[in-house]
């Protein structure tokens, strides 16, 4: 089945009342911030949203987004594939009072004057949050570690100066 294109925004109240489910794809060309934070985005983004009314009659939605991106390994400087998997639950709110009354389990998100939440922005924000602070290959896939282990990993480990030693000495002075 062909996936629908993710709408830019939806009326979150109506979507919740209708128990709207979206199994959609989002054009990678639309995610300029994710593009700038990575070497490249491998494919369009797989997205799933489900809107519902919870037991406290709060209108909420759950979502998932996944896509592979290319990053640069900070250890060996070679490209690496990173699989972004985001999962989130939001409760759309109108104002600060509603936000403050939310149960802790829900992340508030403001809807606009038309009652709409921006799904594209949510997906991009959530994917950006999954990116590692420092991108690195798994040790067995890293070029640098291949080089290291060919010289005997344990020896190298012991010879390498520990940056914390230098720090400790600085503190002693
Ligand atoms: Zn590497």
Order of helices and strands: EEHEHEEEEHEEHHHH
What is the tally of beta strands? 9
Question: What is Rg?
Answer: 22 Å
Ligand list: zinc ion
Shape, per Cα inertia axes: globular
Q: Helix/strand-derived class?
A: alpha+beta
Specify the biggest β-sheet: 7 strands, mixed
Residue runs with pLDDT of under 50 for 5 or more positions: 152-157
Terminal CA distance = 68 Å
Percent range for β-strand residues: 25-35%
Number of domains: 1
Describe it.
This protein has 173 residues and is α+β, with helices and mostly antiparallel strands. The chain has one domain. Helix content is 31%, strand content 34%. The chain contains 7 helices and 9 strands, in the order ββαβαββββαββαααα. Strands 1, 3, 4, 5, 6, 7 and 8 form a 7-stranded mixed β-sheet that branches. A two-stranded antiparallel ribbon has the order 2-9. β7 (79-93), α3 (96-100) and β8 form a beta-alpha-beta unit. The longest helix is centred in the C-terminal third of the chain and has 12 residues, at 119-130. The radius of gyration is 22 Å and the shape is globular. The chain starts with a strand and ends with a helix. Mean pLDDT is 88; it is low at 152-157. The structure holds zinc ion. Zinc ion binds at residues 73, 75-76, 78, 136-137, 142-144. Residues 73, 75-76, 78, 136-137, 142-144 line the site of zinc ion.
């Amino acid at each position: 089945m062909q996936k629908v294109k993710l709408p830019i925004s939806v009326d979150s109240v109506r979507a919740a009342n209708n128990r709207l489910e979206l199994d959609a794809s989002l054009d990678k060309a639309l995610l300029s911030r994710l593009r700038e934070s990575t070497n490249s985005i491998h494919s369009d983004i797989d997205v799933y949203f489900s809107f519902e009314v919870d037991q406290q009659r709060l209108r909420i939605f759950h979502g998932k987004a996944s896509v592979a991106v290319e990053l640069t390994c900070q250890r060996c400087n070679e490209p690496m594939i990173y699989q972004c998997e985001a999962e989130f639950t939001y409760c759309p709110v109108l104002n600060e009072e509603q936000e403050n009354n939310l149960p802790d389990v829900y992340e508030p998100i403001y809807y606009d004057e038309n009652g709409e939440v921006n799904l594209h922005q949510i997906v991009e924000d959530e994917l950006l949050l999954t990116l590692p602070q420092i991108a690195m290959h798994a040790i067995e896939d890293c070029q640098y570690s291949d080089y290291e282990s060919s010289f005997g990993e344990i020896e190298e480990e012991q010879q390498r100066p520990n940056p914390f030693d230098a720090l400790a000495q600085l503190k002693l002075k």
